[in-house]
Amino acid sequence: MFKKVASLFIALCLLGGFQTQVLAAASAGGKCSSTGKIVVVGTARLVCAKVGNTKVWVALDSSGFKSPTITSVVIASNITPDYYLQGQIINVLVTFDAGVVVTGSPQIFLDSTSIGRMNYAGGSGGQVLLFSYLTLAGDVDSVGFGLKANSLVLNGGTINSSNGTPATLTHSGVDKSATRKLGPTTPSGTTTVTTVATTVTTVATTVTTVAATTTTVATSAAPKITSVAFKEPGGKWIPGQNIQVKVIFDLPVTVTGSPYISLLSDSISKATYLEGSGGTSLIFSYTVLTGDIDNTGLGIAANSIVLNSGTFKSASGVVAVVTHTAVDRSSTRKILAS
């Protein structure tokens, strides 16, 4: 028995010494025996390949194994200068420093009072990926939208190099801009004129006449809520993503303090006011935390806006009416662990 164990030990030692010698002898151009075998010698990665009638070690290009990184993110130019019309497509171009292969449906998020996630539309195999969003009736952004930093998410898909190395998805944002607004029609001469009682406010350029589309409202009118909805009507959120609720008023409102809207959920309770003061569209937001789970589906109870010592008022100081209808819980709006 002892002789058998000793013999096995000696054999293993000899095999280990043999493999060490093989690795030590491996170098670009040197002979090898097993086609397709890959070894790492120092910082070099070598593959055994047949060149002519001889099997030799060939050095692999190490750049093919590095993680592709994002070099730029831009919102593509629009066919309507300074303004997007409902029904037009918003495009975002994401450029990598090397070609990438895409599977599934990655997404990237706009920074807007009205719209959020944009879906991957094409570009797999190249360095530039296209993300698009078709604007819908009801999408309005009178502030000017941008793009959130580090908002590119895989959404269950993959973005890898040609040999399968996952890409690095960190990227810079695009600041909000008044030249990227969204609405149902282009203001005449890119000028918006609003008449409140006898006061005329001119935006963008100076005009001497009031356009035919001018709207007159009484200064004593109280703003009222016309709709409450999730910015993403159907979706699944994971930690780090924002759940946002859009509240539309019939008149512009000015917001003070930190009002919030209560949510119907297995895990979270409210979304806090984020932006939109001075316009008709307000955004309430909640950032999903690790441990937040909702398998039933999010909803919003009727009349669930809480002032929290804040205020909603018209431009002339009239307190807004904040009653609103409910949004039923839906299995299409869940919070997942990842």
Question: What does it look like?
Answer:
The chain folds into four domains: 28-60, no CATH class; 65-182, Immunoglobulin-like; 187-216, no CATH class; 218-335, Sandwich (Immunoglobulin-like), CATH 2.60.40. It contains one helix and 26 strands. The model is unreliable at 8-24 and 188-219 (pLDDT under 50). The longest helix has 24 residues, at 2-25. It has 338 residues and is mostly beta strands. The chain starts with a helix and ends with a strand.
Strand elements, count:
26
**What is Rg?**
30 Å
CATH architecture tag of the largest domain: Sandwich
The helix-and-strand class reads mainly beta
Helix content: under 10%
Q: Would you tell me which CATH topology of the largest domain applies?
A: Immunoglobulin-like
| Global mean pLDDT | 78
CATH first level of the largest domain: Mainly Beta
Arrangement of strands in the largest sheet: 4-6-10-9-8-11
Main beta sheet, described?
Answer: 6 strands, antiparallel
Q: Give the SSE order as H and E letters.
A: HEEEEEEEEEEEEEEEEEEEEEEEEEE
- Distance between the ends: 55 Å
Shape: elongated
Our count of domains comes out at 4
DSSP summary: helix tally: 1
Low-confidence stretches: 8-24, 188-219
**Percent of residues in β-strands:** 35-45%
List its traits.
six-stranded antiparallel sheet; single chain; Immunoglobulin-like; 338 residues; mainly beta
